[in-house]
């Protein structure tokens, strides 16, 4: 059994290493292989509701693009946890990431999902990405896994602070994307709007290409750091890459207004030419489940996650950020009953 598990993990690790700098969305190049326990992009199996005692629940876990972290993380979870789970079996499906995953949960086409904690907050409050929609309440949080860092990047040496963006050509993320909403919130925190810049609406990988050609002065990226597109930009641009530091007073303002933000430091050396630590904010990738998944199924899955945490970490580097102490950081919706039981059993009180 251990030999088979090791071989399976090795296969997943090959893919995971290629994805270690990618976010949960669709912004990066395909990595090729499909994780164990997963279904190809575009084929989302119908989710099961909890089955009678003695039968295993087929978990449909909505993730993201096959080229991004969420899909790889789900694949590692399936590989490591399915052999030890007695009440459920994880099947991973590729999706359009966070917003699409909320819709799949609402439609009961998935019963577990990985998504950004800000998107979960918007869905639960009927705001921003879900403005005008009824708040979604039929789900609960299990844990957060890792930081997705807000990175305002530039090759323009005249841009040293956020207010230096005024009058510049700035990519504020694809229209309607999480990057775009984060950009709007940060502009507002600095007393600015998109009208203060020449705003263009592109993904961060397209923005990086435009920056090489001198068409864009700065751009927003919300992704795990280091991010592949920025690593490539720093290595090939022949100019120093700068990530703009956000002052503590503005970080405090963002955290006060939006419960999903956390203060984050990007260490010096994360990118070629980045010779200082950068303070900014981050959101977190979060694991959620529909409330009609039984408490026992969720509790067993979370127990297995932390019992097998070293194996999960061996399969994907993002699990290095997951500990019992950080698992509740940035949770932006109510907890699932099974998660409450798990945390209570481990001496952690959650609301």
Q: What's the count of strands?
A: 11
Oligomer kind:
single chain
Q: How is the biggest beta sheet arranged?
A: 11 strands, mixed
Terminal CA distance: 39 Å
Give the low-confidence spans.
1-7, 9-36, 40-53
Q: What Rg do the Cα atoms give?
A: 20 Å
Helix content: 25-40%
How many DSSP H or I helices?
A: 11
Write a short abstract of this structure.
With 351 residues, the chain is an alpha/beta fold. It contains eleven helices and eleven strands.
Protein described:
- With 351 residues, this protein is an alpha/beta fold.
- Helix content is 34%, strand content 19%.
- It is built from eleven helices and eleven strands.
- The chain has helices at 2-19, 69-81, 98-106, 117-125, 178-189, 204-212, 228-236, 248-257, 295-307, 309-315, 337-345; strands spanning 38-39, 57-62, 88-93, 112-116, 139-154, 169-171, 198-200, 218-223, 242-243, 262-266, 278-290.
- Strands 1, 2, 3, 4, 5, 6, 7, 8, 9, 10 and 11 form an eleven-stranded mixed β-sheet that branches.
- The longest helix has 18 residues, at 2-19.
- It is globular.
- Residues 1-7, 9-36 and 40-53 have low confidence and may be disordered.
Write the layout of secondary structure elements.
Layout lengths: L1 H18 L18 E2 L17 E6 L6 H13 L6 E6 L4 H9 L5 E5 H9 L13 E16 L14 E3 L6 H12 L8 E3 L3 H9 L5 E6 L4 H9 L5 E2 L4 H10 L4 E5 L11 E13 L4 H13 L1 H7 L21 H9 L6
Parallel strand pairs: 1-3, 2-3, 2-4, 6-7, 6-8
Antiparallel strand pairs: 4-11, 5-8, 5-9, 5-11, 10-11
